[in-house]
Amino acid sequence: MNNDVTSAGLIAAISEGDAELVVQPVVLAGGSGTRLWPLSREHCPKQLIDLLDGESLLEATVRRLDGVFPHAATSLPEPHTAVRKAAPFVVSSEDLRHLTADRLGRSGMAARFVLEPLARNTAPALTAVALAASGDGDPVLVAMPADHLIADSAAFAAALEEAVTHAARGAIVTLGVPPQRAETGYGYIGAGLPLGSSGARSIEHFVEKPDAGRAASYVASGNYLWNSGIFVVRASVWLAAIAQSRPLIAAQCTAAFDNACVDADGTVHLNRDALAACPSDSIDYAVMESVGVNARLAGVVVPLRSGWSDVGAWDALWQVSEKDEHGNVARGRVLFEDATDTFVHSDGRLVACVGVQGMVVVETADAVLVVAKDRVQDVKAVVTRLKAQHSEVARQHRRVERPWGWYDSVDQGERFQVKRIVVKPGGRLSLQMHHHRAEHWTVVRGTARVTRGDEVLLLSENESTYIPLGMTHRLENPGKTALEIIEVQSGCYLGEDDIVRFDDQYGRVQQA
């Protein structure tokens, strides 16, 4: 690998015969979105929630790439004369693999996966993908968070095509958003000399999350942009930059990739032991703060004027949503009476707001949030307290999606729990047993194939069976329509971690 990360060094390293420039989208889908609780949970974070009228932020992120690069070939540096856009890499956690794939699959979107056994932030994630993508020449990586909202797709496409042109020449490029206020939660990019007439400028320096005073001075100067979190860089440039700035990240990610397990469909499971020894760091801190300061790291910022939002908290969702004449946003069954500037989301029950101003109310099946709109950043503290109490409402919803379907915990009390379980056609739960609970299953709809110890039963509607404590069992749907059962659990402990898996087609044998 060429360790010279200056533009001149990279241009010299490009093969003269390489006419095709490969652009490799990278979707970073490992965020937790705690400030959007209770809709966003640890096991179903904000990028996987249908926040956009039936579409998740993840789907919107992949979809907006459809219209990018139709004209990019005319502005490419020599020797490139054509662009090939590769299928995106999605970086996600092992735990969210199936839910992430389901969100993409329902929209017919193809993707390749790099899976992390534990979270290590965006710098290791991009490093792992750069290693995986290097087999396709030296592609330009387009790294995008999966949980951002962009209103103007055409403006996004134009900015991204400009960014790819600079990245192809060896620069580390970020898309910068003209600041609307003195926001302390974003990184700021100090813009330097203009690069042509497109609006792109060199990066003088990068400041991650300044205090309020410095943020105000940056906005007042007119010379700074918000960092959008979208980075465009050649794979070789990134690998050289991370090796120089954070050599331990580079070394451990290389070990995690070299010792990874790869499925038949190309899914990369990074090695847990190697990744556990890798420092957790963001792209911003690991590399971008050195761009402009270190002469060997050439940086370019391209303005992004497209209605960008990171949808980081409930007030951001209120800002980008359609409002009534009083500034209110209603999602679901909501009634306003003499209310203004209020956001209400209801998953099911009617929520009536009378005489309130500047509030956020979010109703789900198992939790209700009420918070002043100017205090939504403090929702994260609530989630921290819930996790400290080992509360399930911080981790997952009452309705929990699984690779085989979903279940809803409709009732529970001392020594019992009732679940509604729906299994997709062809779905198959793991072969398992429980140490602390017995289960009663009644088929409500469809046909169930039940493994119960050494026997296999075929149950139709209104038929039932009993699974004693400690008995090996499995539930399958052999039919072409959904299978729905009611499960009644009884025992001294009913937690989801009381599962011993012996066989599982979704690769969860080692998980609790």
From TrEMBL:
The Mannose-6-phosphate isomerase type II C-terminal domain is annotated at 392-504
Q: Which GO terms describe its molecular function?
A: mannose-1-phosphate guanylyltransferase (GTP) activity; mannose-6-phosphate isomerase activity
Q: Where is the MannoseP isomerase/GMP-like beta-helix domain?
A: 336-386
> What top-level branch of life does the organism fall under?
Bacteria
One Pfam annotation, family name? ManC_GMP_beta-helix
Q: Can you state which reaction this protein catalyses?
A: alpha-D-mannose 1-phosphate + GTP + H(+) = GDP-alpha-D-mannose + diphosphate
Record EC number: 2.7.7.13
What top-tier enzyme class does this entry carry? Answer: transferase
Q: Does the keyword RNA-binding apply?
A: no
Location of the Nucleotidyl transferase domain: 25-325
- Family membership: Belongs to the mannose-6-phosphate isomerase type 2 family.
> Protein name, please?
mannose-1-phosphate guanylyltransferase
The organism named in the record is: Paraburkholderia silvatlantica
